Automatic annotation (TrEMBL):
Example GO biological process: cell adhesion involved in single-species biofilm formation
A GO CC term attached to the entry: plasma membrane
Cofactor: Mg(2+)
Superkingdom in the source lineage: Bacteria
SUPFAM superfamilies in UniProt: Nucleotide cyclase
Pfam families for this protein: DGCcoil, GGDEF
Molecular functions per Gene Ontology: diguanylate cyclase activity
EC number, UniProt record: 2.7.7.65
Broad class of enzyme this protein falls into: transferase
Protein name from the UniProt record: diguanylate cyclase
The species this protein was found in: Pseudoalteromonas translucida (strain TAC 125)
Amino acid sequence: MPDKSNPMDKKLKQAIEQRIVIESARKTQVDTLSNFAAKLSLSCKGLDIELDNRLAKFRSALNKGVSFEHLSPLINDILVLLKNQEAIQLAHQRDLRTSVKNAGKQLQKTNGLPDNTRRTLRNLLDNELDAVQSTHGFIPLLNQLITIYNQALHTKFNALPAEQHTDTPAIAKKLLELAHQLVLEDEAAEQIQSIRTTILQSNTVDDLLAAAIEIISIIVKNINNERQSAQSFLVSLNKTLEELHHSIFSTSKHSESMGIEFDVLNKRIKTKINNLNEQTKSTTSISSLRKLVDHELKSLGEDFIAKEELERKDRKVLITSFDKINNRIGSLENKLTKYKKRLNDQRFKSLLDSLTKLPNRAAFDERYNHEMHLFNVQASDVTLVVIDVDYFKSINDRFGHTAGDITLQVIAKALQKSIEKTDFIARYGGEEFVLLMPGTSLEHAIPQLEKLKKNIKKIPFKFKDKQIEITVSLGATQFKQGDTLLKAFDRADDALYEAKNAGRDRLCIRK
Ligand SMILES: Nc1nc2c(ncn2[C@@H]2O[C@H](COP(=O)(O)OP(=O)(O)OP(=O)(O)O)[C@@H](O)[C@H]2O)c(=O)[nH]1
């Protein structure tokens, strides 16, 4: 059926349909544009707050279907901001290139990098770096660089001296302390000294483990020696006592048998004299009397000689036996003296710090106890001082542990020289010393301590051709009524803490 509708209506209908098509096309375009703008703005997000704001406005305007005329100023603003961003990005890129290049060059100087890694690094710096066009392009390069850095750190770590390893200083320190504390003599002392040197120079955990095992074996050997020496002394003592017992027993047995022989002889002599008496009475002629006397005297003479011989033998046996006993006792006494000396030496040595030769903490504890006891009995003045070397760690770090050890020895000597005869100084541990000043009040101690502090500061230390000034901080207190060992020490320690906090190289006191 033909279309009977009005041509105007028709045109209108067509126009409406076209309009719908255009509208929908525009909507699709706007949607695509909004999507694109949203994506773009999200990828730029975070670069610049201002840009973020403009892009957010732009997205919302697009969504609302704002006309192009209204969008135009927004777009212009965004363009200006984007241009700024571009300049900023370029500057960043330049900076990034320079720092990557510098870091890489620094890395090239590291010793011990594997050849492969070194080649990769050279290629990265000479070619790949120049080819990078965007900031994002740096990311894979930076990744590579970080990997190489890791390898370099690993290599470097393994090559570091043991005391600088992050997980080895504690072991090395413990070992050194242990080696310090070992009180051994002669050969063992030399062995320990050489192990100490090994520890100081070692750069691997393996070296430290080997040193630890050596130290343990020396300790075990020395314990065995000590035990053997004690055992040999006891065995010798036992043997001497046995011999003594045996000698006394055999001497008394001998004396017993000698006694019987003497008795027999004496009886014989007595009988003979009696006989002689009786016979003399009954004899009638001189000649028979002479005969009788001759005979009996001869027989008596023989008996006397036998008696004399018996006595001589007896004396000889006794003298030999006493000589033997004497010798035994003499050698036992010798052993006893040596053993006593050994024990005394051990005790003396175990109270001495092997590095500084000052009394050690054990010796200090003993003396401190004694002084506190005296104070509680007679309440005289006693000043207690804790002295700590300032920034000592940096001496070790800059000049090595051996330089640190020497520093401690020199300081110990200077401290010893700076105190009175009646004072008592000890190495408390590490770089800390303690001083007891019996009979000195805190007030009187102050000028002495200030002088001591100056004496240390004046020592002309020189390491690696560098003149170094070393200072100490001091905390002092005086014993007071009601003090315990801990209370007094804590007060001195608090004063030291205050001296450290106030800048070091000073004396602080706590009353
Ligand atoms: N060479 C050597 N160093 C030791 C010895 N005993 C302890 N040390 C070191 O002494 C250092 C003490 O360092 P810290 O306790 O940090 O004190 P410091 O560096 O002196 O700093 P302040 O006390 O705060 O002034 C540590 O590095 C120890 O390893 C030793 O017998 N010989």
